[in-house]
Design brief:
The complex is a heterodimer of chains A (267) and B (290). Chain A is of the alpha/beta class and 267 residues long. In chain A, 35% of the residues lie in helices and 22% in strands. Chain A has a six-stranded mixed beta sheet, with helices on both faces. In chain A, strands 2-1-4 form a three-stranded antiparallel beta sheet, with helices on one face. Mean pLDDT of chain B is 85; it is low at 1-26. The chains are: A alpha/beta (267), B mainly alpha (290).
């Protein structure tokens, strides 16, 4: 899906992200706080980029800029070669599931399919495929509050995947979950993105999560966030089981490196 | 209410209370019989006190008629007795039915208008600024205050009654809907936009459903206000109608009929509110879960 016949720089192809001289300020005058930048960042299509940093370093702001919810005070943000607009070209998963409580699990998927312009007769099939992809079968008719927090976040992921956007943005999606659920969801996200070849930008404060998920990890300094480390993660994306991966010496070394940088940046 | 603390009652699982310790277990989970016994007991106690006060004869029968007389009045207005059909030629149930129809129509109009204006006021700031002071003013007025004006303007038939009920029901719904629409959860609006919803889709799929629970509260309030304005609406030319019956009976110092009318208004009001609560649970099952 990420492959494209379009010519030009990689970041202008579907799913590519380019940030040029971007900084963002909240508020005006004396109360203004620069949350992030200035920084430059390019994400070629198909990459799984993880942004790591201590809380308050502006990593969520960066994701909101890429999603198009905010426009940067300085610099330009480009997604697939154009200024990003919410709901166009990127699926977003937030820290909280943000499901619509007046709809069932299925209803939440259906509304996303409708917004994506999928014809109604294709919904049952697409919905079943999406729910299966995030490991949710048999709960489609349940109310949102009848499924667990981990399942709710799975629904949110399925919903964000519904439009089959070339870019997938995740803002600390597993922070509120217990360790077991978190690990299983991490594995699912890793598998899903590896299968579909989508670009992903994932925000977290956990070095372990960053190294496990990312094909590239960027560590941000404390506010205003700037790039202090840009590290490719040469771990296998497919083949190895999660357990083998986590047990490998390479994984441990990379995680130690990222942990150290995050700590140094926060100090 | 039994003096049981709430927390253990909530925590106790159905099978958790061991049969070996009946004392504390029973205190924690009052049986259905006990829960019914208290309200019924209070009702019986009230009737006994009433009977005692009436029998003591401190006040005349016009002021405090004994329960038996009120019961007799109830039977009299529900049947044809000595060739007299109910009260003033109309049975109690018919009086009530006519009044309920007025409420349904009047409050219905007020609720529909209130929801519509509330939607616009909640979404468009200047419309809200324009109308809010007037609605607040209207809300503080007791319906009796403008009833005379409605009589002058609209005569003494159905028009002023329906209008009064509509005007009384309108403000609570408008205010509740406005507040609910204006306070649409931003995180869900953002989630919908992230999924590609258009402006209109955000309104239709997020703002409106999220406003439903509070709007429903407004509707319940409105029906309550309309109900409490019923007697006022039927003050002039209110027969047939339950409020008119109360007013008319009061003119003749017929206290038993007045009490029957008051009881009928109260009981039907409770039933309607219970109905609305059930409807709310069916329409807004997510209430309190967001």
């Amino acid at each position: 899906m990420a492959s494209s016949d379009l010519s030009g720089p990689a970041t202008e192809r579907p799913g590519g992200v380019r940030l040029t001289g971007v900084s963002h300020r909240y508020g005006r005058g004396g109360d203004a706080v620069t949350a992030v930048g200035p920084l430059d960042l390019t994400v070629p299509p198909g990459e799984f980029l993880v942004l790591v940093g201590a809380s308050g370093c502006g990593k969520s702001t960066l994701l909101r800029l890429i999603a198009g919810f905010e426009r940067p005070t300085h610099g330009t943000v480009q997604v697939s070669g154009a200024a990003p607009r919410p709901g166009q070209g990127a699926g977003v998963v937030f820290q909280q599931p943000r499901l619509f409580p007046w709809r069932t699990v299925e209803g939440n998927i259906d509304v996303a399919l409708r917004y994506a312009g999928v014809p109604r007769q294709e919904w049952p099939e697409r919905r079943a495929a999406l729910l299966e992809r995030v490991g949710l079968q048999g709960v489609g008719r349940r109310r949102i509050w009848e499924v667990s927090g981990g399942q709710q976040q799975r629904v949110a992921i399925a919903r964000a995947l519904a439009a089959e956007n070339p870019l997938f943005l995740l803002d600390e999606p597993f922070a509120a979950l217990d360790a077991l659920t978190r690990e299983s969801l991490q594995e699912d996200v890793r598998r899903v993105t590896a299968q579909t070849g989508r670009t992903a930008v994932f925000v977290t404060h956990s070095a372990d999560e960053a190294v496990f998920l990312g094909s590239r990890v960027v560590v941000l300094s404390k506010r205003p966030g700037r790039v202090v480390l840009d590290l490719p993660i040469p771990l296998p994306r497919t083949g190895a089981t999660p357990e083998e991966l986590r047990a490998s010496a390479d994984f441990a070394a990379l995680r130690a490196r990222v942990t150290q940088e995050v700590k140094a940046a926060a100090a | 209410m039994p003096p049981a603390p709430a927390a253990p009652e909530l925590l106790a699982e159905p099978g958790a209370a061991p049969a070996a310790a009946p004392g504390p277990a029973r205190r924690r989970r009052p049986s259905a019989l006990w829960r019914l016994a208290l309200p019924f007991g209070s009702l019986l106690l009230f009737l006994a006190l009433w009977q005692a006060v009436a029998a003591a004869g401190t006040w005349s029968e016009t002021l405090v008629p004994p329960p038996a007389k009120v019961w007799d009045a109830f039977l009299a207005v529900s049947t044809t007795r000595d060739g007299v059909r109910g009260y003033n030629g109309t049975y109690l149930a018919e009086h009530l039915g006519i009044s309920l129809r007025r409420i349904a129509f009047g409050a219905g109009v007020g609720i529909v208008l209130g929801v519509l204006l509330g939607l616009v006021m909640g979404t468009v700031r200047w419309v809200r600024s324009l109308f809010e002071p007037w609605i607040s003013f209207l809300r503080t007025l007791p319906p009796l205050a403008y009833f005379s004006l409605l009589i002058v303007w609209l005569g003494i038939d159905e028009e002023p009654k329906i209008t009064l009920l509509a005007v009384a029901a309108f403000p609570p719904v408008a205010v509740a809907t406005t507040a609910a629409v204006a306070a649409a959860p931003r995180h869900l609006v953002e989630a919908a936009r992230a999924l590609g919803a258009s402006r209109w889709e955000v309104v239709k799929d997020v703002v409106l459903p999220s406003a439903l629970p509070e709007t429903f509260t407004g509707v319940r309030l409105a029906v309550g206000v309309a109900y409490s304005s019923l007697v006022a609406a039927e003050l002039v030319n209110g027969l047939p109608g339950i409020g008119g019956m109360v007013k008319d009976a009061a003119n003749y110092n017929n206290t038993p009929i007045v009490l029957v009318g008051i009881a009928a208004i109260g009981v039907s009001g409770l039933l309607i509110d219970a109905l609305l609560v059930r409807l709310e649970r069916a329409v807004v099952p997510w209430r309190g879960r967001t």
